[in-house]
Write a structure and sequence with these properties.
By secondary structure, the protein is mainly beta. The protein has two domains: 20-479, Galactose oxidase/kelch, beta-propeller (Methylamine Dehydrogenase, Chain H, 7 Propeller), CATH 2.130.10.80; 482-649, Immunoglobulin-like (Sandwich). 4% of the residues lie in helices and 31% in strands. The protein contains four helices and 51 strands. The strands form 15 sheets. Strands 8-7-4-3-42-43 form a six-stranded antiparallel beta sheet, with no helix packed on it. Strands 37, 41, 44, 47, 48 and 49 form a six-stranded mixed beta sheet that branches. The two termini are 28 Å apart. InterPro entries: Gal_Oxase/kelch_b-propeller (IPR011043), Gal_Oxidase_central_sf (IPR037293), Glyoxal_oxidase_N (IPR009880), GO-like_E_set (IPR015202), Ig-like_fold (IPR013783), Ig_E-set (IPR014756).
Length: 669
């Protein structure tokens, strides 16, 4: 039985913000190194590393918080282990999980007070435990619930639930059944994953992968991580339609069959531009649409082309990185061309300026926003480098300089040479450098937060780039319209193929010809992902197929197909659904894609959609309020789910011995 949400108010929704502007939206209490949207789309969860934030929780500095989208108020959350440079992702039921981090840390970024080998198991001041093997689970709650209750808190207990290997700067990528592949990471170290000379790539590095939930096997070696030794922290990964995985690190590229653990080499990154941390270029899979036959193309922009020796070693870079310009270069690649041709990188339009630590946010209109970053240098921080002594560091502990405060927008459908623009976009006065983050919100604005290129919290006016707690919203150009679509009839779940559904867009949602509005409407599904270090792990965009009926009263009925019947294209779990009319998005609302469990997802044939029906009717919204002049696609919808599930439901997606062990131990799920 198809679940339908109550109709939204059939009155024009308004866009009250100034297009292209930034707005301060509160204090995050902890510096936003990592963020993700709660499963009810009402709150954003924030993670920092264990450090000396003034905000306290249970007698120690907080390094977790939750920000309420409506009230802009923030509440601290307790986390036991150090989440410094962890990875994370969604689960199929809308819960979230984070992996790894660093050993216990104390003031000034020092090792914790209780040493254990090359790391620390705990620190008496910050009271953080070693997080290098941690698996932390969260079932998101909203402001109507008690955040202090156990079911709304992080579960963080490595004695009960942990990875098999220590992983710092690992990557998480979901598979088609909702299982998560956890790839690579540091064991210990600092700037990059190598000694010089690099006689043993395994020194300090975890060049393996494992799965969550575990498949019962020990971590397996991944040759791609050996081949890319040195520059493979936070390796870039994208699940492909074939079920294999696209990997990029250092200057190498490959397709990985994770079932057989075999690699198919692809061409190297042109011009030897490094995109992974600490070069930290922006990367994203471009929108998958009916027009491009759901082709998967990955875009890379920015980063650094520093020569190999300049990257130095585990400790520090071997040049003054803050003087080295970041790359402008952009490249596209389609890893699995439909015509069977060999994959090749294709030169794309350069960025408007060089940018390291930039981050792509896919917008509901199918364009990509890039925010944050620096004109010069790389991610990372230190008291010195291999050339410059501590008292000579010109930008404090930052390895970058020249914050890029002006965002830019990339249009993948524009002709080559005209894809980038920052016209009409404001410049933020806040430096967003190392440990900054960004995330698409349900109102189609973008939350921008974080930045702390310092070993510990430093809010002194004497440092050029202090720890940043102020959150901002950026309002893309479509906020120039004062009326936005207000659709009704949205499902709370989407399936892989199967029966179509109808969405109604009232005449009050648009102006001008109903036929034109219907033809310029798109239904888009966006997963904003789990954001850190210029990455949005799990970020994807799919436009659903649709036809339409324009009624005599000007209302438009959209006949909408389900997700493509291939979970490899868009893995199961939470997402937002938007209706975009003449380039203006509705409010996005929450849907669950697939069964909600870690299991093989059911698929069905695509439904046959009815033919379009036209009418001479028009919309009733004022003509100047509903059109940005940039029509998009051919469909539209949006949806909202019920309140989040309990921690009991969370264990339903954790199969096998792990879930049994948690229940047996009485863990509050």
């Amino acid at each position: 039985m198809k679940l339908l949400l109550p109709p939204l108010l059939l009155v024009p929704a308004t866009l009250a913000a100034t297009a292209g502007s930034f707005e301060n939206v509160g204090d995050t209490l902890v510096s936003a190194m990592m963020m993700f949207l709660g499963s009810n789309d009402k709150v954003v969860y924030i993670l920092d590393k264990a450090e000396g934030n003034a905000a306290q929780v249970n007698g120690h500095p907080a390094w977790g918080s939750v920000w309420d989208i409506a009230t802009q108020e923030t509440t601290v959350m307790d986390i036991l282990t150090n989440t410094f440079c962890a990875s994370g992702l969604h689960l199929p039921n809308g819960s979230f999980v984070t992996f790894g981090g660093n050993g216990g840390a104390g003031p000034g970024g020092s090792e914790g007070s209780v040493l254990c080998g090359a790391s620390a198991s705990w620190d008496v001041t910050y009271q953080d435990f070693d997080g290098a093997k941690s698996i932390r689970l969260l079932n998101p709650c909203d402001s109507s619930q008690d955040f202090s209750s156990p079911e709304c808190q992080w579960f963080d207990n490595p004695a009960v639930l942990s990875m098999q290997a220590k992983r710092w700067y690992s990557t998480a990528e979901a598979l088609a059944n909702g299982t998560i592949a956890i790839i690579g990471g540091f064991i210990n170290g600092g700037y990059i994953l190598r000694n010089v000379p690099n006689n043993n790539p395994h020194d300090g590095a975890e060049l393996t992968y494992e799965f969550y939930p575990s498949n019962g096997q020990p971590p397996q070696g991944l040759d791609f991580l050996v081949q890319t030794s040195g520059l493979n922290a936070y390796p870039l990964s994208f699940l492909l339609s074939s079920g294999q995985m696209f990997l990029q690190a250092n200057v190498s590229t490959a397709i990985w069959n994770y079932n057989a653990n075999t690699l198919t080499p692809l061409p190297d990154m042109p011009h030897s531009v490094v995109r992974v941390y600490p070069a930290s270029g922006a990367s994203a899979m471009l929108p998958m649409t009916p027009a491009n036959n759901y082709t998967q193309t990955v875009l890379f922009c920015g980063g650094s082309d520093m020569p190999d020796e300049a990257w130095g070693n585990f400790s520090y870079p071997y040049i003054d990185t803050w003087d080295y310009p970041a790359s402008k270069d952009c490249q596209r690649i389609t890893p699995e061309p439909a015509d069977g041709s060999a994959p090749q990188y294709v030169q794309d339009d350069d960025l408007l300026e060089g940018r390291s630590m930039g981050q792509f946010i896919i917008l509901p209109d199918g364009k990509l926003l890039v925010v944050n970053g620096a004109l010069n240098g790389t991610a990372g921080f230190g008291a010195r480098n291999l050339l410059t002594e501590p008292d000579q560091m010109p930008f404090g502990e930052s390895f970058a300089s020249g914050p890029v405060g002006t965002p830019a927008i990339y249009d993948p459908e524009a002709p080559a040479g005209s894809r980038w623009s920052n016209a009409g976009l404001a410049t933020s006065p806040l430096a967003r450098l190392y440990h900054s983050s960004a995330l698409l919100l349900p109102d189609a604005s973008v939350l921008v937060a974080g930045s702390n290129p310092n070993l510990d919290v430093n809010i002194s006016s004497n440092v050029p780039y202090p720890t940043q707690y102020t959150a901002e919203k950026f309002y893309p150009p479509y906020f120039s319209a004062s009326t936005r679509p207000a659709p009704s009839g949205m499902p709370s779940k989407l399936t892989y193929g199967g029966s179509s559904f109808d969405i109604t867009v009232p005449a009050s949602s648009y102006s001008g010809s109903g036929n034109d509005a219907a033809a310029n409407t798109a239904i888009t599904v966006i997963r904003g992902g789990w954001t850190t270090h210029g990455m949005n792990m799990g970020q994807r965009y799919m436009q659903l197929k649709n036809t339409y009926t324009v009624n005599s009263d000007g209302s438009i009925i959209l006949h909408v197909g389900q997700m493509q019947p291939n979970p490899n294209l868009f893995q199961p779990g939470p997402a937002m659904l938007f209706v975009v009319v003449n380039g203006i998005p509705s409010n996005g609302t929450h849907v669950i894609i697939g069964s909600g469990a870690i299991e093989e997802q059911s698929t069905a044939a695509e439904a046959t959609l009815p033919d379009n029906v036209l009418s001479s009717a028009s919309g009733s919204a004022p003509s100047s309020t509903t059109d940005t002049g940039t029509g998009t696609g051919t469909g539209g919808s949006s949806g909202h789910s019920s309140a989040s599930t309990s921690h009991v439901a969370l264990t339903a997606v954790i199969t096998g011995a792990v879930g049994v062990a948690l229940l047996a131990l009485g863990v509050g799920f």
